[in-house]
User: Which sequence fits this backbone?
């Protein structure tokens, strides 16, 4: 791509890569014998549900290995040896602020109390992508069944998420209609346009005030992200996409929509599994539902959004429906774990090499409590995790739960019982499991040794 002049940014290559929050190394090809061989895959998946849960029916009442799954989580019983429910975690800088919980789930950044604009920090998945994405076509893959991306670059800019299942299939496995030469010309044209944008921005920048310069900086960061992906697409142009069987291709390229929610959710999960199986990526994020208007499940008779159900005002029927949707979402998680476990590579399953974090940035939606976050860690036994336990940071201080006292339990879900029980501790632990050299992440105070052998 001769027209894509990255030197025009007047920064070093190392600085550029650090700013982009992505790695552009290629796998070992015949023409690159001097590069190190691709590492053994260590994979990470992040799955977000909105608006918390019905915490009165969600809460497990016993810690340790002899805990019992409640009715909501019953589908996870078959994965008991590969699952760890965690209670008591929170993001300190999000407490009391219900806006933007989804945006900082993987960053832990400070959220404005009024829900206004803010500059995020890098998300944990993107730090993983820098390390584990070096050998894959896509350093990370951002998806959303409903809603937006969970991924944020080192500059705090949100990466775009793909919501169309057919577009995801084509991105991963589709056959290009145009020739390589035509695609390369298109990429080169895109690179030329990006160069012009950079030149224009330099001329304009000196004439702007501070606020406008900040806006332009955000825009240019987004341009650099497009620039990076353009360059990476060109580098992988001569590497064939993974070939699928006709059966798999037909199954994964189906045209579905939210009128069949169960099938639609499982199609997304199947695409995730195949992306990991083919080593197209090792880092995946997916927002399951939108916090504002997503989550209706007509398959099971739920026409309301999760946002609407979460504002139940104590109504028993609304709470019952919310529990029903919680159960549905757990059943889909269990299906995903089924598929990961079913695929064997070497002497272990795909699940053994994949750490999966499922959860929400809110504990319950009625009064926007965001302590005691619903959190489930699964998979990754090959990464050193010890599962089959309920890790609880509340019980050592409160002794026991009493969900019959709804107001009392909501207080536990509004203010942290243990101020050091931070979601960033878990994210730090996950970063270290996939070889990210980090001693801290955001406001972490330690790694969670309770989870690892």
Assistant:
């Amino acid at each position: 791509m001769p027209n894509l002049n990255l030197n025009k940014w007047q920064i070093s290559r190392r600085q550029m890569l650090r700013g982009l929050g992505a790695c552009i190394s290629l796998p070992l090809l015949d023409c690159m014998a001097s590069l190190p061989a691709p590492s053994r895959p260590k994979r990470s998946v992040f799955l977000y549900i909105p608006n918390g849960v019905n915490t009165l029916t969600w809460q497990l009442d016993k810690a340790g290995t002899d805990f019992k799954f409640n009715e909501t989580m019953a589908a996870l019983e078959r994965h008991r040896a590969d699952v760890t429910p965690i209670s008591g975690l929170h993001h300190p800088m999000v407490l009391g602020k219900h806006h933007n919980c989804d945006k900082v789930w993987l960053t832990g950044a400070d959220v404005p109390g009024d829900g206004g604009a803010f500059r995020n920090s890098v998300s944990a998945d993107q730090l993983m992508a820098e390390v584990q994405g070096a050998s894959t076509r896509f350093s990370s893959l951002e998806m959303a069944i409903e809603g937006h991306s969970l991924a944020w670059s080192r500059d705090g800019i949100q990466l775009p998420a793909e919501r169309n299942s057919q577009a995801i299939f084509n991105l991963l496995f589709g056959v290009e209609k145009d020739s390589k030469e035509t695609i390369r010309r298109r990429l080169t044209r895109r690179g030329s346009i990006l160069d012009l944008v950079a030149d224009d921005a330099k001329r304009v920048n000196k004439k702007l005030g501070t606020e406008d310069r900040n806006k332009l900086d955000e825009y240019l960061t987004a341009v650099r992200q497009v620039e990076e992906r353009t360059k990476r697409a060109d580098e992988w142009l001569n590497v064939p996409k993974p070939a699928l069987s006709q059966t798999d291709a037909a199954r994964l390229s189906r045209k579905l929509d939210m009128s069949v929610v169960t099938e639609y959710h499982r199609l997304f999960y199947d695409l995730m599994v195949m992306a990991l199986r083919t080593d197209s990526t090792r880092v995946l994020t997916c927002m399951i539902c939108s916090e504002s208007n997503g989550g209706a499940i007509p398959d099971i008779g739920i026409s309301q959004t999760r946002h609407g159900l979460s504002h139940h005002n104590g109504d028993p029927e609304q709470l019952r429906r919310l529990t029903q949707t919680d159960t549905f979402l757990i059943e889909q998680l269990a299906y995903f774990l089924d598929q990961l476990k079913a695929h064997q590579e070497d002497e272990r399953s795909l699940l053994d090499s994949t750490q999966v974090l499922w959860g929400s940035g809110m504990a319950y939606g009625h009064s926007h409590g965001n302590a005691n976050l619903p959190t489930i860690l699964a998979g990754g036994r090959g990464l050193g995790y010890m599962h089959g336990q309920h890790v609880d940071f509340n019980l050592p201080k409160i002794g026991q739960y009493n969900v019959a006292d709804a107001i009392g339990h909501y207080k536990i879900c509004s203010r942290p019982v243990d101020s050091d029980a931070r979601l960033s501790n878990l994210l730090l632990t996950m970063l270290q499991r996939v070889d990210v050299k980090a001693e801290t992440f955001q406001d972490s105070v330690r790694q969670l040794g309770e989870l690892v052998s």
User: Anything to note?
Assistant: The chain is about 35% helix and 10% strand. The radius of gyration is 22 Å. The longest strand covers residues 43-48.
